[in-house]
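Continued from yesterday's entry.
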Amino acid sequence: MGIKGKVDRMVVMACEECKERNYTTTKNKKNIKERLELNKYCPKCKKHTAHKETK
């Protein structure tokens, strides 16, 4: 799947409070080894919360 030589992969972001999967993003797995964590708006919680990369 994807272009040969590309190392960017799609990752799914889940809310830390309600565990709902709200966002998808890409990350370069060669440069960033650890899991991604961003502050995003959760429509279910109706506030900004930390979103972590899921498996």
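--- second protein ---
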Amino acid sequence: MKKELLFITVIGADKKGIVAKISNLLYDYNVNIEDINQKIMETYFVMTMLVDMKDTTSSIETVRSKLDKIGEQMELKIQLQHEDIFKMMHRV
């Protein structure tokens, strides 16, 4: 079965538990983390994840809504973007 890849980007003030909260949510919705990159830039936390949603029984909108709630709670900017849209926006 073909993968359904999406990008998650997270930016905000560095604090404990960011990776744990987001990865636990993805686990709860049966979303597989294909790749993850995170770093601290001065006092800012920056993370990108490539995730596969092919095995989830939930909609992208549901997962996006839950990520938005985490963003509000932790004062983070979290975006969920389908791979096709990402490719279109970043092609040369």
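The two ends are 29 Å apart (CA to CA). The longest strand covers residues 32-41. Will compare against the first tomorrow.
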